[in-house]
Amino acid sequence: MPPYDPSAFPPFAVTVDLVVLTVRSHSLCTLVVRRGETPFRGRWALPGGFVRADEDLGAAAARELAEETGLRAHDPGAPHPVPDHGAHLEQLATYGAPERDPRMRVVSVAHLALAPDLPAPRPGGDANSARWAPVEELLDQARAAGDDSPDALAFDHAQILSDGVERARSKIEYSSLATAFCPPEFTVGELRRVYEAVWGVSLDPRNFHRKVTGTPGFLVPTGGTTTRQGGRPAQLFRAGGATLLNPPMLRPEV
Amino acid sequence: MPPYDPSAFPPFAVTVDLVVLTVRSHSLCTLVVRRGETPFRGRWALPGGFVRADEDLGAAAARELAEETGLRAHDPGAPHPVPDHGAHLEQLATYGAPERDPRMRVVSVAHLALAPDLPAPRPGGDANSARWAPVEELLDQARAAGDDSPDALAFDHAQILSDGVERARSKIEYSSLATAFCPPEFTVGELRRVYEAVWGVSLDPRNFHRKVTGTPGFLVPTGGTTTRQGGRPAQLFRAGGATLLNPPMLRPEV
DNA sequence: GATCATAGTCGTCTTCCTGACGATAAACAC
DNA sequence: GTGTTTATCGTCAGGAAGACGACTATGATC
Predict the structure, then answer these.
(1) Which of A136, A186, B155, B225 would bridge with A190, disulfide CB 3.0–4.6 Å?
(2) Where does the Nudix hydrolase domain lie (chains A, B) (predicted)?
(3) Which residue ranges form the domains of chain A, and what is each CATH number?
(4) Residue A199's pLDDT band (boundaries 50, 70, 90)?
């Protein structure tokens, strides 16, 4: 089979960028790394890198995630849920404006990862340093200072982050995805605090408890209890097999 | 600024593929073109093509859509809705498995377009011919005959089509997107038949009427009436400004 | 022109879900 | 013990949806 005519199409570089979200001290945080190279040297950016020649897009995202955080990604397409507790990873969207990278044509396939609270990030790859930053802070900076401010994220990463956060906010409404922010065993209160942090609202503990325990297949009790949040001991649960929440959890109007 | 080191990343070709959906004679249909070139010569495929060197991804999708159907795409990011009746166009997902194209590494950014019923497609580009095919027929063939059957879609297009249909099915639940399948003025019954065709169910006309007319901003009456569906004359409506449907339209369990 | 078929529109009733909130339970700190 | 914190159960009113009856206005058929 003859190869394609190389003049028929221009060459592109393809990268993956990661929006890694977690909940730390009651606020939604994302992983950012400081760029050590031009362009945008010294600015914060989402972790990411080039897709290798024989690598699938999802595999590239999983590799970058492991390099930056040590997390193993769950493959949503796997026939059985992976028993150990890795991160949820899904494709978010693809960004390919011609001038988004000043040096050449780069198309970036952004991915969204949701992880339970992690120890401080281990710097790796081309990053001088890495940190968990509250998303509100990052997005407010981009809105207030403009994209050219030294506090703003590099490239179009503010847009990618914004899209990723919106995806997470809407997806926990109608799926069990919020459990991806929790450790393997968790209490109803811990799950409620995840919703509160992601949505930036406060929820009625009694109605929330009724909703999540009344949805078949959403939570399965492990039998244990814990007092790690203080107060009366709470039942421990694992995520059940149900992935869709029907009817959905309603996000309160602001 | 020095260019990137070319050895740091492998070259990719980037294409856009289109899932163009419409409702014809009470069933959900998609546009497919017959391939005139290897690979998969003679097989049906989704329309698409290479992204040009200075072209944004959305612009490439809009260009391909216009070439294949003559439709102009609405830009969802535009500050005001475009008054004329083009198609809804949005990015769907990106497919980049290393062997998805046998000749070289191709990453395809799939887009989803929703259009009102159109005249027979005009063949264009590299397609020998084009047709509207019922999606159930196409997907059943892929499932029954396997991907190597001559009836199956080329490349991974059965997967892309399946993802696009699922996106459309879920998105009309909580948005006013179903109006994109309708002409500029339409009746409640015509809108209901769109939902019925996309979901493959039948809906109660009375409850549907109550739901869509009771949601503020969803439909605005034009004052006219029509009897083009037979029976009692029905009020004509245009799509209102509301894009989100809250609470959502509930898809009946199968 | 009467009858019929077709489609549209308005109501009613029951059931389910949610939001608001009272009350009780079981731990810890002092 | 008292107070504080968190968890859990229960009650009640309001809203939305499913099921379905009733009526209306057109064109088609006899």
Answers:
(1) A186
(2) 11-155
(3) 6-170 (3.90.79.10), 177-239 (1.10.10.10)
(4) very high
